[in-house]
Design brief:
Layout: E1 3-7, E2 10-12, E3 18-25, E4 34-39, E5 46-51, E6 58-60, E7 68-73, E8 78-83, E9 92-98, E10 101-102, E11 106-110
């Protein structure tokens, strides 16, 4: 059973930064492709970023390119999402995902 636990959300002003973390247990983490998704109130869940296992290739949703950075620490079984230059449109519940497994989400709110 794979378990994912997100942390690091919070309230930040526009232009601010947050770093989300997702700790994974129950699987061979180093081989997992990890994804970040988000869901804003009243909207569908959307994909945000992906980081692959072996090669650590990254992919990003167009609206976050250049502002968000995905990384991973295989020694800690943890994947990160560094979010800079945050905008109100980034307000959402952020989830990490691997295959059919999801975390519980961590809330990011961007407001002045």
């Amino acid at each position: 059973q794979v378990q994912l636990v997100e942390s690091g959300g919070g309230l930040v002003q526009p232009g601010g930064s947050l770093r989300l973390a997702c700790e994974v247990s129950g699987s061979t983490f180093a081989r997992l492709t990890m994804n970040w998704y988000r869901q804003a109130p009243g909207k569908e869940r959307e994909w945000v970023a992906t980081i692959t296992g072996t090669n650590r290739d990254t992919l990003y949703k167009d609206s976050v390119k250049g502002r968000f950075t995905a990384s991973r620490d295989d020694g800690k079984n943890t994947v990160y999402l560094q979010m800079d230059s945050l905008q109100p449109a980034d307000t959402a519940l952020y989830y990490c995902n691997a295959f059919q497994y999801w975390g519980q989400g961590t809330q990011v709110s961007v407001s002045s």
